[in-house]
Records
---
Amino acid sequence: MDPERHGDQVREERTTVVLSKEQARSRRTRSIAIALALGALVILFYAVTLVKGPAVLNRPL
Amino acid sequence: MSVVSKSGEAAYPIAGAAVAPRCEPSIATAGDYLALMKPRVMSLVVFTALVGMVIAPAHIHPVIGLAALVCISVGAGAAGALNMWYDADIDAVMTRTRSRPIPQGRIAPGEALAFGITLAGFAVAVMGLLVNWLAAALLAFTIAFYVLIYTMWLKRRTSQNIVIGGAAGAIPPMIGWVAATGGISLEPCLLFLIVFFWTPPHFWALSLTRVDDYSRAGLPMLPVVAGTEATKRQILLYCIALAAVAAAPWLLGYAGAVYGTTTLIAGALMIMLATRLRSERDGQRGRQAAQRLFGFSILYLFIVFAALLIEAGFSYHGP
């Protein structure tokens, strides 16, 4: 392989997106919101499982 | 009548807002996604669904009830997000809606579409798995009706858009009832009719204060198409019908004296405000009268449903 081309390829692979402060802050709020939503769902599903007990799979129309 | 053409998501006339290029990382915050779900509409939907659930003559475990309310609110949010995705072009030219996340370029239309579809699927599936499948089917129907029938079909074509489309906002109390009982009877249908007849005077009062906005967006709202006088007459007629329908649960014996008294007084006030609106000429005073009716209509729905909730608190479960 041409060493010069190989170097270009490596440089290209190492190129990453650098987030601006606003983008990083927005991503952080989204990540926190997703974490909170998932946590709430875990608690809800756990509570429903306790309430329904073995009948959790019994789903009448 | 097709007033506004829909030519695809990329052709929005974004008003004074730069749309983020798709290759750029998103600048949307969690608050933008919350705004996409129309939280104020969600709160009214959840409240009416809660009342439907509480007055139902069957016990629902609080945890299951909470799960049902979460599904209803997420389903309503999904419908709101899909509505904003489809209506981004007209939202961009209306003063009231131009600061929404999509016209502002904070959320890409495709992201809103994916968000809405994901939430809708999640809400319906969880409602079916945790509560019951009839409630899930009603929830799916409500979301589909709001998005396909109201948003995509009626909204840009007929001045009766919010009359027919209002059915979507009237179903949540029925979903709450079905979540608790697993079936439908006359009482939830009466709750449906109350919200159904409440919707036109509520939205037409708002549209009277935003005629220029709707006109610029090309939306065939009643004041734009038929004029303000015809709209005021229709508002009055619907308020009279609303007062009669809202009294029905009491007249038929499904609700007690607290509800009966409350709904009669609130209905009389709605009719009084609608009469006053009709007697006012267009202009500043007419706009103020429309704003008063719009504001009171929100309070009206809350009062009427709260009266049912209070009676349920005294263990009233119908005849």
Note: DSSP finds 14 helices and no strands in chain B.
---
Amino acid sequence: MLRWFPENISTFGGEIDSVFRFIYYIVGFWFLLTEGAIFYFLLRYRSGPRRAASYIRGERWAELAWILVPAAIVLVLDLGIDAAGARAWARIKEELPADAIQLRVTAKQFNWEITYPGPDGRFDTGDDRTLENELHVPAGRDVVVALTSKDVIHSFFLPNVRLKQDVVPGRTIRAWFNATKPGRYELACAELCGFGHYNMRGFLTVHAPADYENWVREMWPTVAAGADSEG
Amino acid sequence: MHATATPQTAALPQHAEELSFLRSYVFSTDHKVIGKQYLSLGLFMALVGGFTAYLIRWQLAWPETAVPGWDYVEPDFYNVLVTMHGTIMVFFVAMPILLGAFGNFLIPLMVGAPDMAFPRLNMMSFWTIFLASAVLLASFFVPGGAAAAGWTGYAPLSADPLYTGVDWGLTLWILALALEFASFLMGGVNFLTTAINMRAPGMTLLRLPLLVWMQLTAAVLFMLSVGPLIAGAILLLLDRTVGTGFFLPARGGDPLLWQHLFWFFGHPEVYVILLPGLGILLEIFPVFTRKPIFGYRAILYSTLIAGGLSFIVWAHHMFVSGINARLATPFSVTTILISVPFAVIVFAMVATLRGGVARFPTAMLFAIGALATFIVGGVTGIFLGSATVDIFLHDTYFVVAHFHYTLFPSALLGAFAGLYYWYPKMFGRMLNETLGKIHFWVTILSFNAVFLPLFLAGAGGHMRRIYNPLQYDFLKGMQPLHEFVTIAAIVLLLGQLPLVVNFFWSLFAGAKAPENPWQANTLEWTTSSPPPHGNFPTPPRVYRDPYEYSRPGNPRDWMPQTAPLAAVAADPAPS
């Protein structure tokens, strides 16, 4: 199952994958144990001549221990899974990094509008640029996206970044990521949003640092001369 | 807990006059007839739901090609299909069959009552869901088509016709659900009252068969959770029809409110469907291993705990919905905690199988198949219960595979087990075992061939409810998987033909069923097959637990609940 995961290109994607792997081995063990017991018991105790079933009601503690002790182990493992997950969740979803590139993403049936603040680093100024379905970020930088929707609920999904966040009309929801590997990846809508839902596709382009400066110069040719590439 | 129920059964209805055909088979107040009516409705709706699955699967495997026996599936109709498939299967197949059919048929028989406490209410509950089904099916034919906002009906998509182009269809969808809820509220009241107040003398609460406990828990969960959703449905209806804005931000509303109301109901609803299915397995395992249930009380208390926990886990459907991120971890903890009571129930079932004398008629095969597949659904829930992993897996095929692995074992494999097991009692004929075993093997193999690969698709990030996966480069490699799954799904659907043939052939030509063909203990097997109007010629008196199989000192390996204590006077009974 683990081989099916899309390539991870984000700083926190590895944490999500390792929590998945942690759960995978724990539940895999219990799955094999329980299924094995079922099939072993059924084959071992299938009906035959001169055999009688044993009369065990499982009402005494000594008998119940056979199921309560494993259940107690399940409880302990559950708490371990919770702890592992809670740490990763807090880092990924509960806090936003300081000093990040700020972008606005507006979802609508059936497009993503990505607004860049331009060289002045501020929104709602003359050098803002909005691109449809094209999300450009430099590799290795924290990026915060402010997600809003013009109509219904969409879900901002970057499979390779392991980031998914619903986009809810009437709210601005902030999410962050840090993509480490340059390349062009897909951005998908993961929440049913109407008849064009399946086609609400965009692209994430992760630029190597030098390449990113070239892209900025192309986007803001007049102001780029003296300005930093700070997005 | 040892108080004996009052002997309500003393007042058996004596029906001297012949009832008309209409009163006997259509507007009947007999719980057994009503149970069969629910069964027929559920099986019919399963055909509709199965056909939607066929259209969905064809479109996914061979996108935008004409579906054999149909036409091209357009994107907006695809959304109708996924919406109606979920709605039909959960509300119009699983609930009518598990609660409506088995609950209705079995609860009065198992507690030793002549009928439900409120027979006319019972009849009304069936005709209400009949009307609900008619409204739902009619919504396919109104201008604009049927609801297309997903079975979860997320607002604002569902709240304004502007967003989907569906106008009347979605309004009828709300109406159909409202009627369906009303129907099951009436049913729930009946189930509770009957099982609490109409137990035969000696049928203490801890002598109730576990199936009855499961049905009771399901009824309580449903009644406690459905209120918020009914409120939500009314608000949604107002948004659509009179222009309020409860869920529309432009008019001051909040879309997440709908999700809270929906899932506060939605999660207990999962157990409303799951528990009666588990109850069926719990009746079948002791009979075909000739052993008592291992840990009756452990199972009972675990069920009640799981039912209670199911009210405080709903936000696990909303980890990435935009709720306060600090809510995720507490809901993650409660969600994953539910694995403990279910682990106890599953381990108790496994322990029941140990040391028995196992026989494998079709009913037992389906019960084992249901348990073995349900475990897959259970363990994969842990992944989704972890908020961290859910960031990636939410709204992917991993979720689709997971809930099919929990609901299919209960609502279909469990129901099939129950059907093969109680068909003799329902219809007075035995089902054909050869056809039954063909049905079992085709179903279990093709079911796993459909849904195991979908876990892989989900791990690959494949979103659900995507009309044409070929739109995405990262999904293109999964097309062979889609084709394989679709072929398996067609086999699964065709694999139900042996059941259809068996059902109707046995109705007329099956071997006559004796009173107690499986040598089982519970009360329904102490009366004729099928039982007469009023169920028991003389009111039964209960002396013992429902699972007294292979008790030492007893010459037979079974002992009906009505066997008096004197029958085992010489027995050194472990208390």
Note: The radius of gyration of chain A is 26 Å.
---
Amino acid sequence: MEPFTTLRSRLVPLPHDNVDTDQIIPARFLKGTDKTGLGQALFADWRVDEAGRPRPDFPLNRPEFAGAKVLLAGDNFGCGSSREHAPWALLAYGFRAVISTSFADIFRNNALKNGLLPVVVDPETLQALFAAVAADPTVEVQVDLARQTLRLPNGREVTFPIEPFAKRLLLEGKDELEYLLSLAPAIQEYEATHPVWVRTV
Amino acid sequence: MSHPPSPRARTLFEKIWDAHVVVERPGEPAVLYIDLHLLHEVTSPQAFALLRERRLRVRRPDRTLATVDHSVPTLHRDRPIADPQAAAQVEQLVRNCREFGVPCFGMDHPQQGIVHVIGPELGLTQPGMTIVCGDSHTATHGAFGALAFGIGSSEVAHVLATQCLLQHKPRTFEVRLEGSLGPGVTAKDVILAFIARFGTGVGTGCVFEYTGPVVRSLSMEGRMTLCNMSIEAGARAGLVAPDDVTFAYLADRPHAPKGRAWDEALAFWRTLPTDPGASYDRSVTLDVTGLEPMVTYGTNPGMAIPITGRVPDPQALPDPAQRRALEKALQYMGLQPGQPLLGHPVDVVFIGSCTNGRLSDLREAARLLRGRRIKPGVRALAVPGSQEVKRQAEAEGLDRIFRDAGFEWREPGCSMCIGMNGDQLEPGQVCVSTSNRNFEGRQGKGGRTLLASPLTAAASALAGAVADPRPFLDG
């Protein structure tokens, strides 16, 4: 996983609440057994019309937002299915952070495990950001994970919450698996003292 | 007079959580032990790939079970899968399980089925356990008083390799259901009403516990329907305290404890319900007295109304963001503000899924369909949740009732709930569906999903339009 430290980027506005993972990546793109092609499938049904042409009004298709690494989205982003394909697709497309007022639990967990930073801000800040991008699509934000700050286009800084453990792993670009594997003795001890009720084999 | 210090009163959730914490260090998430790990073909291949890359094995194959459900066709199971991608995905699961020693129910296995249907029916899902699966509807298993939740593929790899997960302790949230249900009103209607009232994000960061007289009156199947859709309200897990209904369901299931082990298990299970005096971080109450069958009109499960109601008007909403969301949803659904849903023409009816694909769901629908024919032109699918459900339904003659009514009787799988296996809507088609999600394109690109109970789905198939099941139940 690529470490996440600081990020300076323009924003792609997606002013909808409850953006579900079926929109982020429709189920028909989940039939692969690896992660190839997911970036092209991001928001497929919102990006492309019935005839396969890009919808010119969809933010990801607008030239002024090309190359932006931060997605600005409405409340409860990533609700629905547990598919980790959602953060994989966002990352493959080029996003490194999503700003919203809240994230669905499973999406949030999946995002953190892949180096996609969920940045939670208050509703006023979110509205101010949407307004700033509407007024000038070239405005930028700056994310500093170590300080847990988001610098808004007007220079004001807001802080965002993140669990210390997840923060450390993101800063170091490490995943949880190494940590869990290092706990093997404790897991063994737990298993030795907890009888098995159920066996699948 | 002094009393000996009594143990702190705890909720059902806290008892299960406490019993499964392996390590807890300050500033770090808890390491939670997982008793049962369920796998399917869509979210596991990347996890097995990670194991291979790190040269790891599956720590506890005996606590792991795989089945195929999402991508499998529900027709012509004797032939190879026509879709090469789906065929490769199913084959990959079988190969991964063979390589890592994990038991796997392939396409032709007599116990194959939707992962959340087979766990309970095999008796693998038991009170007090922790259960995970790379699938958000893992919440279903909470009906037994098990802490069960969906995880991503990275976490699937973590559990395969270590049988543990790193977890921040969620908050507890009591959903108290008061009153009693009228005829023709089911668990599905209760959960749709709850989400409509409290919102799709109300449970974020929380585990629900459903309490009160309504839950006690529900069958295990109804409790599973209730818990299944906890995630649609944002909660990763929903719980129901185990009781005699739970124990009667579990007795004699293939994996349920037997003899003396059963007595021991039962004694343990009886200690699980929330202690008197224990408190939840949050509690809400919903009185279901007078509740009508519910149906969704929009593009998230919270957009639901009583079946005799009218589609809401965006202009009546004070918040501009909510107004835009409703306008967008109605445009997608092809519905007008203020119109009734009753009588709205329906192209497709789907009865199945981990929400409503169990035997009792098929029985309910069949009760209404017996001796009747669906409206010509309506395409209707009945998809049993598992091979076991299908066998039992056929033994009772339900398949004949469905077929005689004009339904297609299919092989088990997720089918049109997620539309990955070819069972899907055409753009613009309207489907009354017993599944769990009405998101844009969920049942096929451009498809329009109206979520409802099996009774409402069956009534709508007969009428060829959204219909109230209650008049069909008279006489």
Note: Chain A touches chain B through 58 residues (CB under 8 Å).
---
Amino acid sequence: MRKYMPLLLSSLIVASVLGLSGACTRGQKTVKTVTVYVSEDQVFSEPILKDFQKQTGIKVKAVYDTEEAKSTGTMNRLIAEKNNPQADVYWANEPIRAEVLKQKGISAAYVSPNAKDIPSAFKDPQGYWTGFSARARVLIVNTKVKQKPNSISAYLDPRWKGKAVMANPLFGTTTSEIAALFTLWGDQQAKAFMMALKKNKVAVSTSNGESADFVAAGQYDFSLVDSDDGVNRMRQGKPVTIVYPDQQPGQIGCFIVPNAVVLVKGAPHPQTAKKLIDFLLSPQTESKLAFADCAQIPLHAGVKMPPEMKPISAIKVMKVNYAEVAKKMIEIQPFLKSWMGL
Amino acid sequence: MQKRAFLIGTTAILIVIGLLPVISMLVKSVFQNGHFTLSAYHGLLGSARQWVLIKHSFTLAALVTAFTTVIGVPLGILLGKTDFPLRKLFLFLFVIPLLLPPYVTAVSWFDLLGREGLLAPLLGSTLTQHIGRWLFGLPGCTFVLFSVFLPIPVILTVAFLHTINPRLEEAARSAAGWGRVLKEITLPLIFPAILLSALLVFLLTFGEFGVPNYLRYAVYPVESFTRFSAFYNFKAATAAAMPMAAITLLALIFESAFLREGTYQLQPLPEGAQRMKIHLYRFRSGVVISTTLLLLMIVIVPLLSLIIKSGGFAVYLQAINKAGESLIRSVSYAAIGATLLSILGFFSGYLIRIRAFKFWRSLDSLTLFLFALPGTVIGIGLIRLWNTPRTNFIYATPLIILLGYLAKYTALTSRISVTQLAHIPSSMEEAAQMTGASWLRRMIFIIAPLAKRGLMAAWLVGYIFSLRDTSITMLVYPAGHDTLPVRIFTLMANGSPELIAALCVILIAATLVPATLISLLPLFKRQEVWL
């Protein structure tokens, strides 16, 4: 027996390695699966995907983004895999990336029956992406500030010189909002706004979360952040409040950032992919995401949500075309890099 | 014939797994639509930011190398050559940070000193802000990486001290005190170890991604990862990786010219030889107290802060519930990876030891080059090479992770095998050959059993490094196959600090339990030199 031990051992290793590869491929054929790349934070998205798995019996395989990749790692993986798609569905945490994928020919059209009650401003007219559960770009303000800012133009007010902070405009929803301002105001006015930010000594943090922490700690008076950052700090009992900016007549409104779900072109499992998309676009999913710590605003009317959140119908929304914002976002990258001194 | 085929096979595997992805990445970075172009490199050299990154990377690597060498070598002498009490326990404890993904140590310091940290109420907000600025930057990165890589000079010093012929020191001691003997005999003899450890620490720090990324200090590996991951710019990512590859190559040329023979001459003491011990006498209490303080500061306090932060049993249950599958995958992939690494390392070590081919030195350099190359570079290369429909059996399965482990860590198992094989007299193999045993039979029935301690050590080192890997796995893992270190990273975005701390503690346990069990085996009770 001892004589054959090395042979047995080496066979076992070869078998386990081959088995590892084989099991993965075989598993895909026998068990219904769906592969989803997710840029929404794992801590919020995973429970939803687990619910889907539990309800349908379809096994979900996911790749999540890291904070370090600024939530664009999975999108870039989709681009890298254009000629060899591995994913069926992309769950983006904002529609701009979904637009980029559409423009690069990586997504396929699918109009989900659950998308019909979602306002048309938050979905692609051809069905290349559909929005759900949104964040609003709000001002988080420390409660010690007596006269609260109510517009993003407060960043330029000398009263708050050196007392306001914003996240790095090269990444995430801050880039999207700045690109949205460029489409709304035109290049000249938007660039002037950006230069005036510098003049008024607006501080730049690494992320919206850090900005919210700075305001909560009293280091700065206010910051433009995502609504989930603000609601989270309020739920933690931090001395902050949130203000939906530019809500008065004649003002530009509040920039809304919905999640977006995309069917990947050439998806290995198109049927299960569509089931997952339908599930994500359901009012039930929106309600779960509203009550979760991410505190996202449902886009379906009449969905249950926590009292500290405003329904989408009560918010004056910034009117932008997300496709134009996506194009503008790429266009202004060199300007933003030079604005940051890179 | 059998031997030649096997060793050529080993070389081919190393080239396909390790070198081909890097070459493929390099070639693709200089071609656009079939035409040769250096545009990505022009962009790189033309940007002022690159010089800032180079300066940051060099400063960080130089500071960490200086601190680890200045403190690690005396510590190694203390734990390897004196009558310091509980030397083995101290050595084991000092090594712990090296066994973990470096960012775990960074997380633990943040849990302790951050704005919401355990010490925040005691320190007050002003001091916490100052410390936060210190932690998130060059000083914090230097301190964390110092504690992570300190074990390298300590272990190498201890290992080399064990190979010094005691007669040399005995002769010197008859005419001089220990101070002079250490300065004029011992330190010159272990000088290759000091240089080797400095080189390793420099390269590992230079290629480190997790800690500077977590502590937001802009260095080259972070830039390369960001260019790939956040901007999806393969060409720019490759270009950003090339200075790191060039510096790694330069360091290896240095190692090849000045160190290699010195490190390969590592031999165990002759039977019955007694090592000379330095008695600390009146300095003992002071030395013990200061060493304990250092241990507390860089190992125990961060570990304790993680344990305290993780809270109670409920958090651990939640952690297991959220990441149990990732833990199982981590342990399984690390175990399979370690087994493959031991086998590949054994044959490559054999090839290098007997200098089977003229290119033995090149093969050794290749494994070392891949080890020193930042994981992000290897990860990007693997994606470049294997992301095709025909190779989905690799790209879309955990085999891609295993290939990453083999590419990156074969140098370790190979070097352990070289040292272990040096202890086996060639007469053993020759005797078996005389009886007509084939080469493969000689390997399986004579050499492998005699080298079993080395193989076990190689497996353990392969397991630890595979388990702690983040940089390669994070880039290449297929959907549904994330490992625990990767899951900790992805959960860091808005995950609760208690959960992250609990997951870090679980990862530490997954690393230390097998390491402790294996080190307790009777096989490891005797004195061992692995390096």
Note: Chain B has 27 helices and two strands.
